[in-house]
Amino acid sequence: MKIYTNKLKESWIIDRVNEEWNQQNSDLITHKVKESDIIWIIANWVWKKVPKKYLQNKKVVVSVYHIDFDSFDKEEEKNFYELDQYVHTYHVISQKTKKQLKKLTDKEIISIPFWINQENYFYIDGKKELREKLGFSTSDFLVGSFQRDTEGHDLKSPKLIKGPDIFLNIVSEMNKRNENLKVVLSGTRRQYLINELNKIHVEYKYFEMADLHLLNNLYNVLDLYLVTSRLEGGPQAILESAITKTPIISTDVGVASEILHQDSIFEPEFYQNAKPNTEYAFQKSEEYIIPEGMKKFRAMFSKIYEN
Question: For 256, which of 57, 129, 225, 250 could close a Cys bridge (C-beta 3.0–4.6 Å)?
Answer without folding.
Answer: 250
